[in-house]
Specification:
The protein has 490 residues and is α+β, with helices and mostly antiparallel strands. It contains 18 helices and ten strands. The strands form four sheets. It has a four-stranded mixed beta sheet with strand order 1-2-6-3. Its cofactor is heme.
């Protein structure tokens, strides 16, 4: 006679076998990929240290389009320029969904832009782009704010008097202050504790989103909601950010002039007022909180980390740093205030910034999409609702499009006469209808911050310190190892 534990074990084995067969059956219609196992899917096939090579290695075994299972949910990975372009450019309209996972659902609730889909996404995105343009994105107004912030950053660096310092805090602060100027209409001083807490929260989320705790939350949400762990801290960070933004909104309500909106929140509050009787309007307080959060979440870490990489590459390649200094000296008059237009007469500096973005590839695999219709990709039938992972790293390092894909080489963006040019395979901001909403703002920030710093300082490592350009591994983000640097007045 079998005991209760043997019966339970037999039932469990039957259940696992049944699940395994179900997964095999479901895999039949999908692109090939590692065999999915019950509960964990094909996560077992990922390297413990996930990096920009992981998917490319799998593509060598399974092809340019393959299936990875997260638990019992299939995800289609696209590798290389042709596959990513076919999905995000040729089928752009059908690729505008963002997959909802338990963690995203619990924290973002399908609101805002970054994690929204369908009508909410369309309305919020279109309106936000319009307001950003009104506020001067791509024009002088916003550029002036960035120049001011660059000046604060230079001041911070100058005060260190060439001593070793960590550039990460002042850079994060300056970049966050640009977003603050856009959405709140003002900047925060370096010692504002509440603002600091919010920035730290954004930083924490950037590292948490691709972490094992986040994956565990999405696989076993009911269990994880009960357990302690970094997911609890992540939820707390989101709440802190929302609280901070709600306070700003309340103070705007008291002071705003409806005829003369000054910042994003002013415009949005006016839009809520204007559309309050429209039954299909999605303009409300909650969406305002989430859109504002999205600007900070999507716009601060990405830009700051790119700048951190840029300074690190300058130290790693002193000859390239010297060439930039020479170009700036030859072209710009003394005490010239850098503006975005200057990029046209500084092709080498512009090429270096693009090359930093290409090689640093701060969002390791790009952002996930959800198919809105049945489509055909690379000859495979992909069903509506499928999750798509465009492996942007594989495009930025695609050997068919870059001469020395793994090597830092500004010539990737220069023609034989030294003129700047950009390739289609340069897509750190994504492509298609969901391309980064802040692309123009980010490009202006990167150019003005980086060029202003290079105009003022020569960067080098403290004596005896070794340059390490290996990224910190452990998530889907490519972040440099923490470092100290000396900013020597130039
Ligand atoms: C170097 C800096 C930046 C990089 C590399 C970057 C990259 C990206 C990428 C890859 C996406 C996803 C696109 C896709 O789904 O295919 C994205 C989305 C987004 N970015 Fe950026 N971004 C940067 C800066 C900014 C800034 C400064 C803002 C501020 C407004 C911003 C706001 C957004 C928003 C709101 C989205 C969501 C767009 C949507 O889902 O429709 N980003 N970004």
């Amino acid at each position: 006679m079998w005991g209760i534990s043997q019966l339970l074990a037999a039932a469990l084995i039957c259940l696992l076998v049944w699940q395994f067969l179900k997964l095999r059956w479901a895999s039949r219609e999908l692109p090939p990929g590692p065999i999915p196992l019950p509960l964990i899917g094909s996560v077992w096939r990922l390297d413990l240290k996930f990096n920009q090579e992981t998917f490319t290695k799998l593509a060598k075994s399974y092809g340019k389009i393959f299936t990875m299972w997260l638990g019992h949910r299939p995800m289609i990975v696209l590798n290389g320029f042709d596959a990513v372009k076919e999905a995000l450019v040729t089928n752009s309209e059908d690729m505008t969904g963002r997959p909802m996972t338990p963690f995203v659902d619990d924290t973002m609730k399908g609101k805002g832009i970054l994690f929204a889909t369908g009508h909410i996404w369309k309305q919020q995105r279109r309106f936000s782009l319009m307001v950003l343009r009104n506020l001067g994105m791509g024009r002088k107004g916003l550029e002036y704010r960035i120049q001011q912030e660059a000046w604060h950053l230079i001041d911070f660096f100058s005060n260190e008097k060439g001593k070793p310092m960590s550039p990460s805090f002042p850079i994060f602060y300056s970049v966050s202050n640009v977003i603050s100027a856009v959405v709140f209409g003002h900047r925060f001083s370096y010692d504002d504790e509440k603002f600091k807490e919010m920035i730290m929260g954004v930083d924490f989320m950037f590292h948490f989103m691709p972490s094992p705790f986040r994956i565990a939350y999405d696989l076993f949400p009911s269990l994880m909601r009960l357990l302690p762990g970094s997911h609890k801290k992540a939820i707390f960070c989101v709440e802190v950010g929302h609280k901070f933004i709600r306070e700003e909104i309340r103070s705007h309500e008291k002071t705003r002039d409806p005829i003369d909106p000054q910042d994003f929140i002013d415009y949005y509050l006016e839009q809520i007022e204007k559309t309050k009787d429209d039954p299909i309007s999605t303009f409300d307080y909650e969406n305002l909180v989430h859109v504002t959060t999205d600007f900070f979440a999507a716009g601060t870490e990405t830009t700051s980390v790119t700048l951190l990489w840029a300074l690190l590459y300058m130290v790693a390649y002193p000859d390239i740093q010297e060439k930039i200094h020479k170009e700036l000296q030859d072209v710009l008059p003394p005490f010239h205030k850098i503006c975005y237009e200057d990029r046209k007469r500084l092709p080498y500096t512009n090429a270096v910034i693009h090359e930093v973005q290409r090689i640093a590839n701060v969002l390791l695999v790009g952002s996930f999409r959800e198919c809105q219709k049945d489509i055909t990709l690379q000859g495979f039938h992909i069903k509506k609702g499928s999750i798509i992972i465009p492996d942007v790293a594989s495009v930025l390092y695609d050997p068919e499009h870059w001469e020395t894909p793994r090597q830092f080489n500004p010539n990737h963006f220069l023609d034989k006469d030294g003129n700047f040019f950009c390739k289609e395979a340069f897509m750190p901001f994504g492509v298609g209808h969901r391309i980064c909403l802040g692309e123009r703002l980010a490009k202006t920030e990167l150019f003005i911050f980086f060029t202003s710093l290079m105009q003022t300082f020569k960067f080098q490592f403290p004596e005896g310190a070794k340059v390490n350009i290996e990224p910190k591994v452990g998530g889907l983000a490519m972040v440099p190892q923490p470092y100290n640097i000396c900013a020597i007045p130039y």
